[in-house]
């Protein structure tokens, strides 16, 4: 009988499993998760879950009984040690093995850690899992009781979302960012500055060009502060390290699959082994021009999961949709469509001061991406424009009286 094993029970793994059943796969499907929980939503961890505004039931993505009704066997707390491609076996940490006729790698990513003195002290956290978020929330409660500050190292999305949540809890927050501005790799300078003002307006202290030298501990082994290269000490009761993630491609590498800062796949999730596909944050996609791109988003995980499942069914279903992302900070929702790398011109539509606007990114006059703040209509419109490869001019994008939707009918 055909048997598909899926390593990783996050968004990509679940989507792959369900897509296989929808496509008519009749064999066995085993979904392996190394956490003790069943599949759950990760985006709320830095926001609603951390803020205590969400309960365990609301965090569940697919209840085990739902998966069971689809004849998908979920095994939690199950780690995979090795893939034996010759024998078509997945070796588990308990010494047992599973045979496969098709294998999906949806192993996700791991937060980067600091390699500095004191970085392993009690009170230093990264955020990726439900347990991480719960531990951070408990430590934040202690900081609130003792009036201890929170230090966030890294001004990316995770760092800023945690900073906003901590600030809403009434904690004193400082963000230490090594770059000269927030979210410098993904946002236009004008939007980086707007987010800096948003956080400062809520009392968050921002330090740019920050060089962290060490995390200092007290006599009990907990942290007391973050020491900078220039000698400045920022007192802290909690440190959140948000400096990006590393793809979990160790299993794939050890099995001899092509990897380059992630498992290399094509638009259909294929690896260099015809029986193995990969999806989600563990992957890096090779584009038609030979370049590689890594996307870390729920949309990417879901769509790659579907594409990978189709490949195992012998169906070509490339994931080529316009990428989109989102981030909630304070009462502002950022929705991003497209990829803005390489943009050389920008246009702002709406009033930034009012907090409802969009930034349109152009390269050589061609629309690359649109970042919308509290402007969902703009975001949906932008996705349609990008999908259709229709580009307004900068003047049209900046003119709120101009109907951009009308360009789609031309």
TrEMBL record:
Pfam families: Pyr_redox_2 (PF07992), Reductase_C (PF14759). Residues 3-305 form the FAD/NAD(P)-binding domain. Residues 324-407 form the Reductase C-terminal domain. Its cofactor is FAD. Keywords: FAD, Flavoprotein, Oxidoreductase. GO terms for molecular function: oxidoreductase activity, acting on NAD(P)H. The keyword Cytoplasm does not apply. Signal peptide: none annotated. Gene3D superfamilies: 3.30.390.30, FAD/NAD(P)-binding domain. GO terms for cellular component: cytoplasm. This is FAD-dependent oxidoreductase.
């Amino acid at each position: 009988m055909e048997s598909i094993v899926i390593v990783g029970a996050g968004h990509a793994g679940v989507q792959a499993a369900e897509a296989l059943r929808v496509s008519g796969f009749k064999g066995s499907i085993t979904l392996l998760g190394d956490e003790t929980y069943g599949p759950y939503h990760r985006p709320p961890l830095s926001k609603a879950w951390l803020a205590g505004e969400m309960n365990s039931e609301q965090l569940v993505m697919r209840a085990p009984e739902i998966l069971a009704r689809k004849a998908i066997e979920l095994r939690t707390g199950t780690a995979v040690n090795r893939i034996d491609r010759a024998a078509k076996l997945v070796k588990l940490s308990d010494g047992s093995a599973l045979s496969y006729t098709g294998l999906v790698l949806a192993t996700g990513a791991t937060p980067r850690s600091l390699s500095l003195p004191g970085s392993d002290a009690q009170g230093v956290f990264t955020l990726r899992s439900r347990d991480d978020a719960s531990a951070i929330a408990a430590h934040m409660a202690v900081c609130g009781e003792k009036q201890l500050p929170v230090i966030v190292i890294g001004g990316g999305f995770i760092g800023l979302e945690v900073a906003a949540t901590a600030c809403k809890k009434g904690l004193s927050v400082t963000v230490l960012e090594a770059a000269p501005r927030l979210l410098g790799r993904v946002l236009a300078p004008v939007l980086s500055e707007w987010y800096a003002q948003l956080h400062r307006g809520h009392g968050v202290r921002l330090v740019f060009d920050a060089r962290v030298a060490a995390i200092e501990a007290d006599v009990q082994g907990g942290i007391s502060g973050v020491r900078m290269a220039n000698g400045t000490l920022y007192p802290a009761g909690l440190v959140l390290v948000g400096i990006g993630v590393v793809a979990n491609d160790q299993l794939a590498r050890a099995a001899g699959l092509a990897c380059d800062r992630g498992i290399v796949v094509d638009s259909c999730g294929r690896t260099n082994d015809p029986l193995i596909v990969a999806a989600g944050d563990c992957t890096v996609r090779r584009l038609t021009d030979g370049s590689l791109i890594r996307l870390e988003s729920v949309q990417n995980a879901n769509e790659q999961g579907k594409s990978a499942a189709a490949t195992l069914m012998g169906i070509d279903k490339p994931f080529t949709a316009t990428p989109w992302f989102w981030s909630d900070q304070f009462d502002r929702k950022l929705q991003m469509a497209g990829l803005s790398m390489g943009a050389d011109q920008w246009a702002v539509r709406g009033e930034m001061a009012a907090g409802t606007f969009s930034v349109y990114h152009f390269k050589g006059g061609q629309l690359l991406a649109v970042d919308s703040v509290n402007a969902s209509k703009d975001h949906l419109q932008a996705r349609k424009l990008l999908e259709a490869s229709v580009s307004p001019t900068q003047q049209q994008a900046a003119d709120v009286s101009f109907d951009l939707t009308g360009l789609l009918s031309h």
